[in-house]
Amino acid sequence: MVDLDNAVIVDVEPSVPIRTAETLAARRMIDRIEDRFDMAPDKLVGDTGYGSAEMLGWLVEERDIAPHLPVWDKSK
Hints:
2 helices, about 15% strand, globular
C-alpha cells in the first residue's frame, strides 16, 4: 500500500497471484494502516484484479473510498 501523495510505502502483505487473495490482502492493508497510522485512504488505485463487484461495493459502501480502477466485467 503506497501513500501516493508522499510516495511512501505504508504497508505490505504478500499474497499468491489469485484475485481473491490479492483483494483480501488489500482489505487487510487498508485496515492496518488505519489502525497503525490513523490514516484513512480516500481513493484506491489498482488494476482489474481489484475491480470485482464485491471489492467495489466494500470500498464504496463500507469504507467510503473512491475506486480508481477498471471494473472486472464478467457479464459475458
